[in-house]
Amino acid sequence: MIQTEPMKLAPDSQVPPPEPAPSGPVATPSGSTGLRVWLALALILAAGIALRVLPWHGYPWIGFDENLYKVYVEKLDAQGLGAYPAISAEYVARQRATPKAFLPPTRFLYIFFSATWRATFYGDARYQKVQTLEDVKTDPTLKSMRAISTLFTCLTLLVGAAFARRLAGDGAMLGVTALMACAPTQLHMAQHGLIDGFFAFWALTALWLLWENLQSTNHPRWLAAYGVTLALMVMTKENAAFVTFALCCVIAIAHFAKWGFVTRNLLLVTVIGPAVGLIALITLAGGAHVFVDIYQLLVSKAENLSYAIATGDGPWYRYLVDLLLASPLILLLAVSMVLQLRRKEHALLYVTAFIACSYVFMCNVKYGMNLRYANMWDMPLRLLAFTQLGLLTTRLPQRWIQPGLCLAVAGLCAFDLHQYQVLFVNFDRDYEMITTNLLYALKILKLMPPN
Amino acid sequence: MSESPAEAAPEPQRTPLWPLLAVLLLLLGCALRIVPWTSNHGMGYDESYYRKYLLMLDEHGLAAYPDVCAAYLQDGTVETTIAKVPPLRALFVAGGLAWKRVAFGSTPPADLNAPNGIASDPALISLHRIATLFGCLALWPAWGLARRLFREREALAILALFVCSPLLIHTSQHGFVDGVFGAGALFALWTLVESLREKAHRGWLMGFAASFALMIMAKESALFVGLAIAGILIFSHRLGLGRATFMHWGAAVIGGLVALVVLSAAAGGLRTMLNVYLLFIHKVQVLPYAHETGRGPWYRYLVDLMVFTPLTLCFALGGAFLTLNGERRAAVLLLFLAVTYLVMSNMENGMNLRYATIWELPLRALAIVQVGAMATRFRRPAWALTVLTLVLCAVDLRQYYEFFVAHTVSDLASQYLLRAVEILK
C-alpha cells in the first residue's frame, strides 16, 4: 500500500516568496554592509566624536543648571546612594521656601552617571566652588558632568547610525550620521553639562528599539532592551512622560497603519518599563509622597518662574521657529519631506509620527518650550532631510547621483558647523538655547554691548 | 439593439460653479481689505512723510513735484537728519493726491493732535484708500495668473489663500506703499506670463510694459522684480511659458524707460532723481532703526514668514520641493521667488517682512501645489483640496487677528512679530 502524505501548499524553501516592490528608502538586512561602507562610517563617527570631545564652545562659565547638577553630583558622591531620600527631602524643604524653581533630584540617572564618572576618574578630589574661569576648567565635578554629556551625545551618534541603517539602508546611515555629526544642537549638548543630550540618547534609543520590536515579533532581547531603555529614560528626566505618551501613540498608529506587529508583550513592556523606572525613582526619593511633592512643587514653581515665563512661552509653532533659527536647511528639507510622504513609506512615517506626537505634547507645555528639549528630534529630522536630498539628486544624470548626494550632504554639514560657530561659539554670553539668544547670535536682534 | 439611457439622453451640461465661487472670493477679499479691521489707528513714520508730500502737492499742484524732491534733498544735506521715504514713490503719492482731490476737494488737513485727528485727515485717508484699492486690484492678476498656470479648482484655492493673506490685508489697512508695489509686481508678472503664450494678443505685451512702468513708479524695489523678470525671460522656454522674443525685452525696456522719464520729470531732472535715490540709500545705511530691525542672516525672511504664516510657509516649502522634483506648473513662480529672495536677503540692514508682499502669490501657489499633491491621496481629492485650503485660510485669518487685532502691530520687524506671539517678552 502506498502511503500518501496529505497535500500541502507549503512554499518551497529554495524559492523565496514574492515581495511587494519597495517604496522609499529600503532598510539594509543585517550582515550585508560592505567594508567600504563601514570604513566610511568609521571616518564619519571619528569626525563626529572629535567635534564633540574637543573643546569648542563660546560660553566659558558654568551655567545655571550645571551649578545645580554639580551640587547633586557632589552630594551623591559624598554620601552615596543611601542618602538619596535625604537629598530629595532637602530639595522639597528648599523648594517650599523659595519662589524660584530648581531642577529636581529625580533627574537621577544623569546625576548618578556623573557621580560615578567623578568617583572613577577623580577619586577623592575635593569639592570646590567654581568662581573663576580656571575653576570651570579644572573642577572635577563639572568635568565629569560634561564628560557624561559628551559620551552620551557620541552614543547618540552611534544609535542614530544603527537606527538609520535599519530604517533606510546603508546610504541613509552614512548620510544621517554625517548630518548628525555636525548637528549644532548636538554639538552644543556635548560641550556643556546639560541633561538634554543625555535624555535625547535614551529617547532615541527607545524609539529605535520600539521599531525593532515592531519588526520582530516577541524577540526577547529586543523586548528586554526596550523595557530597560524605557525605565532608564524615566529615571533621566520628567520629559520622559512626553516621550512615553508619544511612543504609545506611535504604537497605536503602527497597529492601525500596519507598520509592524503590535504584540501583547510589546504593550506589556511599554507599560512595565516606565513603571519600573517610576518605582525606582519613588524608592530613591524616599517614598511616594516625597516624589509627588517634588513634582508638584516643580510644576507650580516653574509656572510662576519669571525666567520660564520670559523664555519658554510662544505659539504652537515655537519649536519650528527655533529649529529654523538653528538649522534652517535641515528644517526646510525635513518639513517638505514630511508633506510628501506616502502611505507605504513606513520607516519615514514612523519617525514623523514620533515627532508629531511628541510635538503635540511639548508645544502645549505652558512656559515650557526650549530648543534643548527638541534634541531627540535631531536624528529623525535629519533622516527626513536626507531623504529629501536623495529625491532631489535623482533629477541628476545617473552617474552624478551619488557624487551629487555626497556633495549635498557635505554642504549641509559645512553649513550646520557654521551655524554652530555663529550660535554657540561666537555668541558667548549664555549657553541657554532660548529664542532670544539665537536671535541675538544671528543678529536679527541687536545685542547691546556688555556693561 | 437598445441604447443605454446614458446614450439615449446625454447628461445635461452642468453650469460650472467656479465663476460664482470666484466672484464670492473676490468680494470676500475686497471686504477683508476694505472693512477696517486693524486695531492700530495711529500714523506710521513712513505714512507721515507720504502725507507731507501729498499735502505739498495738494497745495502747489503736481508741477511742484521737483520742489518736493528739492526739499527732500535739502533736508538730507543736514548730517543729523535720518532717512525718510523718498518722494519718488510717485504712483502712491500721486494716486493719493488724485483720491484726495476727487473725494475731499480742497479740504484742509486735519489737526493730527486733535481727538480723532488722524482718522479724519483727508490726506491720510486718501493714502489709505489707495493702498486698499491696490490691495483689492491685486486680487485680479492673482486669480488670472493662477488660472493661467493651474486648473480652475486649484486656481480658486490659490485665490482663497491670497484673499486671506494676513500681509496683504495689513498693507491694505494702512497707508503703506508695499501693497501698491506688490500689486504692480503681480500685474507685471501676470501680463508677462500671458504675453509669453504662443499667439498672445499684443495687448498683453502692452499691458506688461504699462504695469512694469507703474511698478517702477511705485517703489525703487522694482529693481529686484526687474531682475526676476529678466530671469523669467531668459528661461521662459524651459519654464514652459513659450519663447521670449525681442518684443518682450523691448516691452520691458520701454516700460522701464517710460517710468524713468516720468520719475525724472517729477524730480526735475535725471540727476535729481538719482540724487534722491542715492540719498535715501545712504541715509538708510546709517539709520539706527534699520540697524536694529533690518539685519539678520540670509534666512531672516523665512524666520519672519514662519512666525507670521507658519502653515502656509510649510506647505509652500513642500510645493517648492515638489517643483524642484519635476512639478512644472509653479516653476515660473519659484524662479521669481528665488531671484527676488536672493537679492532681498542680501540687503544690508534692509530686511522687513513688509517688502515680501511680492511673494504672497508665489508662496500661496506653491502651498496649493503641495495641498493638491496631498489631496490626490484622498478618496475625494476635490473635497480634500477644499478642506485643506479652508484650514490654511482659517489659520492665516487667525494670524491676522493675532498680530493686527489682538496686538497692535504695525511695523513687521522680527521683534514686533515675536513679541506679538509672545516668544519674546
Write the layout of secondary structure elements.
The complex is a heterodimer of chains A (451) and B (425).
Chain A: H1 35-53, H2 64-79, H3 84-97, H4 108-122, H5 133-138, H6 140-168, H7 170-181, H8 184-191, H9 195-215, H10 220-234, H11 240-257, H12 264-285, H13 288-303, H14 306-311, H15 318-326, H16 328-340, H17 346-362, H18 378-393, H19 398-426, H20 435-441
Helix pairs in contact in A: 1-6, 1-7, 2-4, 3-13, 4-6, 6-7, 6-8, 6-9, 7-18, 7-19, 8-19, 9-10, 9-11, 10-12, 11-17, 15-16, 16-18, 17-18, 18-19
Chain B: H1 5-8, H2 18-34, H3 45-60, H4 65-77, H5 90-104, H6 117-120, H7 122-137, H8 139-149, H9 152-163, H10 166-172, H11 177-195, H12 202-218, H13 222-235, H14 246-267, H15 270-285, H16 288-293, H17 300-308, H18 310-324, H19 331-344, H20 360-375, H21 381-406, H22 414-420
Helix pairs in contact in B: 2-7, 2-9, 3-5, 4-15, 5-7, 7-10, 7-11, 8-9, 8-11, 9-20, 9-21, 10-21, 11-12, 12-14, 13-19, 14-15, 17-18, 18-20, 19-20, 20-21
How do you describe this structure in short?
Chain A is mainly α and 451 residues long. Helices cover 68% and strands 0% of the residues of chain A. In chain A, helix 7 packs parallel to helix 19 and helix 11 packs antiparallel against helix 17.
